[in-house]
Amino acid sequence: MEAIHDDTCPSFESALELIGRRWTGSVLQAAERGARRFGEYRAMINGISDRLLSQRLRELEAAGLIKRDVIPTTPVQIHYRLAPDGQALVEALMPLARWSMRRSGSRGTGRLAAAHRS
Asked: How far apart are CA 24 and CA 21, in angstroms?
């Protein structure tokens, strides 16, 4: 058996680790559905804590998947949106989400797939 020596493996593993974290799929789905402000994300994602939502938004921003815009008003407003790489990731995940829904017998367990059922 031959060993795998592929330069893409570390990058792929890193991407899987990021998207596999709890609530990451929900945050990406909320962004795709139009959430812009923190409260909109919180309202769309049942059960996520403020601390964890803030952490996921920071991680996704650092990864270049979410854009954070600061609007200098009083009080300051912060808006989030999918970056082009985030939108591409959501589109790339859709076949996996559909596969997981078929595999689970359509029990409704896939958060990301719910946005794109057709």
From this structure: 6
If phi > 0 it is left, if psi is from -120 to 50 it is alpha, else beta; for residue 75 that is beta
Structural domain boundaries, residue 81: 23-114
CATH number at residue 69: 1.10.10.10
pLDDT digits (tens, 9 = 90+) for 17-65: 988 999 999 999 999 999 999 999 999 999 999 999 999 999 999 999 9
- For the chain, first and last CA: distance in Å? 42
> Residue 41 class from Cβ within 10 Å (0-12 exposed, 13-18 middle, 19+ buried)?
buried
Q: Specify the length of the chain in residues.
A: 118
